Amino acid sequence: MVVIDGVSDRPVNGKTPLSSAKTPNLDKLAEMGINGIMDTVSPGIRPGSDTSHLALLGYDPFKYYTGRGPIEAAGVGIELKPGDVAFRVNFATVKGEGTIFDKIVVDRRAGRIEDTSDLIKAIEDELDLPVKFILKKGTGHRAALVLRGDNLSHEVTDTDPKKVGRKVKTCKAKNKEALETAEIVNVFTQKTHEILEEHPLNQVRVAEGKPKANALLLRGAGGFTKIKSFEEKYGLKLAVVSATALIRGVCRLVGGEVIDVEGATGNVHTNIGNKIKAAIEALDHYDVVLLHFKATDELGHDKNFEGKTKFIEKLDSYFKEILNLDFSKICLIITADHSTPVSVGDHTADPVPVTIVHDGVRVDDVKKFSEFEVYKGGLCRISGRDLLRIALDLINKAKKFGA
Amino acid sequence: MVVIDGVSDRPVNGKTPLSSAKTPNLDKLAEMGINGIMDTVSPGIRPGSDTSHLALLGYDPFKYYTGRGPIEAAGVGIELKPGDVAFRVNFATVKGEGTIFDKIVVDRRAGRIEDTSDLIKAIEDELDLPVKFILKKGTGHRAALVLRGDNLSHEVTDTDPKKVGRKVKTCKAKNKEALETAEIVNVFTQKTHEILEEHPLNQVRVAEGKPKANALLLRGAGGFTKIKSFEEKYGLKLAVVSATALIRGVCRLVGGEVIDVEGATGNVHTNIGNKIKAAIEALDHYDVVLLHFKATDELGHDKNFEGKTKFIEKLDSYFKEILNLDFSKICLIITADHSTPVSVGDHTADPVPVTIVHDGVRVDDVKKFSEFEVYKGGLCRISGRDLLRIALDLINKAKKFGA
Predict the structure, then answer these.
(1) What angle do CA B159, B160, B164 make, to 5 degrees?
(2) Over the stretch A53-81, which tens digit does the pLDDT of each residue have?
(3) Would the ipTM clear 0.85, i.e. be above it?
(4) Which residues contact A357 (CB under 8 A, 6 or more apart)?
(5) pLDDT tens-digit profile of B340-367?
(6) Of A291, B98, B129, B307, which residue is the least packed, with the fewest Cβ within 10 Å?
(7) What span, in angstroms and rounded, lies between the C-alpha atoms of B252 and B248?
(8) Strand B142-148 relative to strand B132-137: parallel, antiparallel, unpaired?
(9) Contact call for A349 and B388, based on CB within 8 A
């Protein structure tokens, strides 16, 4: 399953990056396969990349998604227990006087700090909270926090103001049951700030002219959900080739393997060839391989029509290799997790294109992988929540319901 | 959102009123937009105009619809409380001997009586029931009844036989819990008949050669459902331009504003120009405006192919004004609440055409607003329950689900 993140658009003067790009290989695959459009989560619902990937892997996000936190936690290898509350954490830089909630966020990534191990160690050693906590580093400025104790609730708001120049937000309870959790988050936020502010590493950073990593910004609180592993659910082994932490987290949440690829960056400079090679090789060891490209989404967020068009063309040029797969054995899906129109600069609910290539699919008349053509194909309009099941049926891995 | 009630058909000799009608303006809108077919409630479910309009406004009728009564009650301005049972009421004319349940309905609208205020006043003054009741007049012969008390249930049958020449029906309980309610309805029906029969206004009517308004026929029992207002649910203000009581009731049920238009009649003589003008003006004050035309449905019920075709052409001629809207700001939807094929003379579940015009929609190849063309469009086949969410996404009023 090749997921080209946010590849589809709304037209600008009748054209989209995908419809404008020269994509001979994608077009050939569309011609070889069956095509359609897809609401990854549900019609009119704007998916995040996390909820949409859950859907693409056959997990109903309305049932299994409580927030981004649990996915970040899974991404760094923390296994949640019932009652836990998980958060995505950013090491950030704040400035000003008073408590942390009086201070202004000046850098949400603390100068893209590379190693936060010592800072986390200090917090583990010095922080005293009324509940247990697990703080684990991700790549760069990223981390995950899990609070573990009785009577916690994930119905709390973010402390991350999401934009620089704004004050750190006070965590608020969304209902009575979450009052204690909100209080703990606020204590956590203040105390970790005090520990980080005085940490020797930050004195070194200041001396080097780097911004202090003196605050932890929390967002995406979520709780435990009982979720069957991919292997348990389908009897199949899953691997993901993606450089994007959130997608890697979704994969780990469902017990899949994350494959690291040299030169995979999650942006336009990613090593497309290496990633495709790794995904194809992974098919020897795994039943389902999700190959994810992020740059199309980034360029959509940046409202960069030309850049998105060019990256799609670049991506397509590497897809020649995919054309030569043995489609009597392999079922190939090419799709996206959501649209990220350059005209909007954010995810939208516009359906995504989907092409399935496999011996035996009902090949249709579509000859171009574009928003203006695929909807005419034999899949019509499907739901992302059904996609994996449709593919498993095509490869005869589906069970009969009834006699 | 323009709702052309029951506009679509099943073909007769390969043609439908919509496909036969010359509709240059509707066709132009189809050409400018994205098209498809839509199951307003669910595939194969024949919608009433009430359930379908709930769906069109984004309320799942399977969840929120318990019967026509609550919508009629909302239409006349009664706010239901938990435990209430609401009915649609007709002032009618019965003749014969014995109790009301021995008598024959000779006019279901009591000669289309215009003012029932005095009759309702008499009932309020004289009727003694074991529970509280609210009886409120609608337009003409129409009224709504709400029973308020402990242990009531809306699981009771109609007393309205729906056809003249038949006896008034005894209200029956659909289960044990509703036995008391059914008994109260029967007492209500008999006692109001006695009060009305003797009322001076009816002596005057007889002297004038008019039928007595001597019976209340009840139908569509329904109960309270907790329903968020449109503004609460979407953060948007809703207005409806419709002369049809049921549609006005649905609008009021969800807290929308009903706009009165001079010359709006809910039939072929309606002032189309005034209604369109009022709807466009309403866009200055409301976020979502539903403009409803009823005559197409009536002509479908009448099995009048030619009349329906002509009314569609007349309607289309007024749509020129709609063509000139600023579609960078306005998202236009043209659709129906259900099909009312002239070959059937009633609502059917055949999907309805839907066209969405807005800057940024993925314009497709459809060039005619007809049952035989719109299904080829870029929306494919959608559900009426998703329509509003799809539109809100297109105007960037949708929230992201996930990160």
Answers:
(1) 135
(2) 999 999 999 999 999 999 999 999 999 99
(3) yes
(4) A29, A32, A33, A327, A331, A332, A334
(5) 999 999 999 999 999 999 999 999 999 9
(6) B98
(7) 6
(8) antiparallel
(9) no
Strands (E), B224-349: 238-241, 257-258, 288-293, 332-335
Query: Right CATH number for B2-65+227-394 from 3.40.50.300, 3.30.300.90, 3.40.720.10, 3.30.499.10?
Result: 3.40.720.10
Contact B398 A44 (CB under 8 A): yes
Per-residue pLDDT, B326: 97
CA distance A328 to A169: 55
CB atoms < 10 A from the CB of B385, how many?
25
B77 neighbors B252 (Cβ within 8 angstroms): yes
A41 reaches B (C-beta below 8 A) = yes
- Distance in angstroms (rounded) separating the CA atoms of residues A107 and A210: 11
| B252-to-B79, B228, B347, B391 alpha-carbon distances in Å | 10, 12, 23, 21
Contact B362 A350 (CB under 8 A): yes
Residues of chain B short of pLDDT 50, as ranges, are: none
Chain B CB within 8 Å of residue A61 CB: yes
3-state secondary structure of B375: helix
Three-state DSSP at A316 gives: helix
Residue A164, chain B, CB below 8 Å: the answer is no
pLDDT over 90 at A88, yes or no: yes
Residues of chain A with CATH 3.40.720.10: 2-65+227-394
pLDDT, residue A290, reads: 98
Alpha-carbon distances, residue A155 vs A79, A220, A316, B220 (angstroms): 20, 10, 43, 40
The residues, any chain, with a CB within 8 Å of residue A334's CB and separated by 6 or more, are A2, A4, A26, A29, A353, A354, A355, A357, A369
DSSP string, A364-379: -S--S-STTTGGGSTT
Residues counted in chain A: 403
Residue holding tokens 């069109």?
Answer: B56
E-strand stretches of B185-311: 215-223, 238-241, 257-258, 288-293
Residue of A nearest to B384 (CA): A43
Taking CA atoms, what residue in A is nearest to B402?
Answer: A48
Q: How many interchain CB pairs under 8 A, A with B?
A: 93
Which of A48, A71, A246 lies nearest to residue B400, judging by beta carbons?
A48
Task: Supply the DSSP string of A8-29, one letter for each residue.
Answer: ----BTTB-HHHHS--HHHHHH
Q: Which residues have a Cβ under 8 Å from the Cβ of A224 and sit 6 or more positions away?
A: A70, A80, A81, A82, A83, A84
Nearest to A227 by CA among A258, A259, A245, A252: A252
Across the interface, do A43 and B390 touch by the CB < 8 Å criterion? yes
Residue keyed to tokens 């892997």: A57
Please state, in angstroms and as integers, the Cα–Cα distance from residue B253 to each residue in A69, B54, B59, B245, B374, following that order.
38, 9, 11, 12, 32
Q: For A123-169, give the DSSP string.
A: HHHH---SSEEEEEE-STTEEEEEEESTT--S-B--S--SSTTSBPP
Q: Measured between beta carbons, which residues in chain B are less than 8 angstroms from residue A353?
A: none
User: In this complex, is the C-beta atom of A52 within 8 Å of any C-beta atom belonging to chain B?
Assistant: yes
